[in-house]
Structure formats: structure tokens, C-alpha cells
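Hi R.,

Here's the chain you asked about this morning:
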Amino acid sequence: MALRIDENQKRLVGSFSEESYPDECCGFLLGRRSGTDKEVVLIMPTVNEQVRTEKYHRFLISPEAYLKCERYAQENELDILGFYHSHPDAPACPSDFDLKHAWPWYSYIIVSVRKGQTSNVTSWVLADDRMSFEGEVIESNPYSPEEQDVASRPVESQEDRTWD
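And here is the predicted structure, written out as C-alpha cells:
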């Protein structure tokens, strides 16, 4: 089981994480299933509702943002494969909060941001028993020509493409 993601998309996740520092950022991973692997073709930032209400190092995606992203994914023949979020000045591994709020099957990319700079990017999947996370391999994903248009849409900052 692997999560395939284009290096440009991976860099965008790191950039969004750095922009949000010292708060956590979050967003969606959209793409397609390929056997037991997941292929990310588009990342979609969203507003971290937790930051709007409290200054905790946690993330919260609103139900409205989830529904908008789900509709967009369906209209574009994509699936929500998972989520990404950052851990400011903390390791790129799931926290107890992450464990309590995760859903099985979805990929969870976590970006460690140390002093405003991306230091590590990992991916995790909640175990079927929901007691722990399992590490997920991140592989580089080369896009086919028809996917390149969707995957390479220019994004200058999180605000350029945010579900809120």
C-alpha cells in the first residue's frame, strides 16, 4: 500500500504548512484508487476551523468544507483519498488527537515544520482496529498528460484555492 503524489504537489503541501506556521494548516488529498495504492492528483487547502476559534496545534475541517470538496471530487471523477496537516515544531507522526479523530482507510499526510521550515513529510493510515496508525509509503507519482492539467493548476497561496 502506497500513496503516490507528484513532487510539485508535495512541495505545495510543505509551502502551505510553512505559510500557516506557527499554526497548523490542513487540506484534502484528491485522486484515484489504483489497486491498493492511492494516486493523488490534486491537493485542496481548506481553512483550519480550529485556528479560527482557538490557537491550539490541532486542525478541524468543517462539514461544509468536506461536502464542497466531496462534490468537487465527484464532478471531476476523483475521490477524497485523505487529508494533510502540519505539526508546527513537532514530529511528523500522529498525535493522540489525530488518533482519536482519524477515519480508517484515508491517508493522513503530516508535515513537520520546525522554525517555519518543512523538515519532514510522512503519511499514515489508521489501523482497522482504530488503535494505532500504520506508516504509509509516499512514492513519486508521474501524471498522464490528461491529469497534468488538473494537477498543475497554479496556486500562489492557500487562499487561492480554499474550501471554507
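One quick note: Helices lie at 7-20, 49-53, 63-75, 96-101, 145-151.

Cheers,
M.
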